[in-house]
Automatic annotation (TrEMBL):
Domain ABC transporter: 7-239
Organism: Nocardia alba
Protein name per UniProt: ABC transporter domain-containing protein
Subcellular location: Cell membrane
Portion of the full sequence shown: 665 to 904 of 911
């Protein structure tokens, strides 16, 4: 991790018909950082990571390292180093944790590639899933389910991991444990963009926070600066 910009967004705009869901968003995600992406419901957070991962089309520039993602399809963006999770986790309930990760890989341009067991061991160790690898997904806690979806994304060997509310549905203990796992992922060299409503998690693990409101960047700074920013409090109040 160099701290140099790894993921770059310049004037990224996404329109749904007449609705501007993401409006001229510009920021860098430094290599090796955990960057929080927060904001009220409907602010455009998921749409922004959809734009980065290529599942919606966007205006503006999106780069990873020196590589432009603009005209790349989703699988090419995965190849370029992007991984992501989704708000709704879809697991095969009867398949084991390990099988769920293997199945996930086949959708990521690695179908037929040799599945290196040592790679899996590394990912499962990092995520604290080693003891659960043969358990059916249907028996897992919500926190473990989140980690399986992250393991799927990690199996694509991302340089940047985009996480959409991984603490949703977790209690305080599980959320803290998830935070430890995310720090371990970061320490292994993976840069993280974290959409999250759990502010204690954001305050604890993020190096930097970007606040979206009505599709625009409302504020950015350290977690403490964001917590103490009256503009941010007002945006959240306005949404309640
Ligand atoms: P949440 O925290 O509730 O997940 P969010 O910040 O992720 O919210 P988005 O889901 O990105 O916000 O939504 C941003 C805006 O774009 C909202 O006004 C939403 O209604 C609109 N929007 C999202 N997806 C679509 C779509 N497929 N078609 C039309 N409008 C959409």
């Amino acid at each position: 991790s160099t701290g140099e910009p790894l993921l770059g967004l310049r004037d990224v705009t996404v329109r749904y018909g007449g609705v501007v869901a993401v409006d001229n968003v510009t920021f860098d995600v430094p290599d090796g950082a955990i960057v929080g992406l927060i904001g009220p419901n409907g602010a455009g957070k998921t749409t922004l990571i959809d734009a980065i991962s290529g599942s919606v089309s966007a205006e503006g520039a999106i780069t990873i390292g020196n590589e432009s993602l603009a005209n790349k399809k989703t699988h090419e963006r995965i190849h370029a180093g992007l991984g992501r999770t989704f708000q709704a986790i879809e697991l095969y309930e009867d398949l084991s944790v390990r099988e769920n990760v293997v199945v996930g890989l086949s959708g990521r341009g690695r179908a037929g590639a040799a599945f290196d067991e040592a790679e899996f061991d590394e990912i499962f160790d990092l995520l604290g899933l080693a003891h659960a690898r043969e358990r059916p997904a249907g028996e897992l806690s919500q926190g473990q389910r989140q980690l399986v979806s992250i393991a799927r994304a990690m199996a694509g060997k991302p340089r940047v991991l985009l996480l959409d509310e991984p603490a949703a549905g977790l209690d305080t203990t599980e959320s803290h444990w998830l935070g430890d796992r995310l720090l371990a992922i970061r320490d292994s060299g993976v840069t993280i963009v974290l959409i999250e409503h759990d502010m204690s998690l954001v305050l604890r693990i993020c190096d930097h926070v970007q606040v979206l409101d009505f599709g625009r960047i409302l504020a950015s700074g350290t977690p403490e600066e964001i917590r103490d920013d009256p503009k941010v409090a007002e945006a959240y109040l306005g949404s309640m």
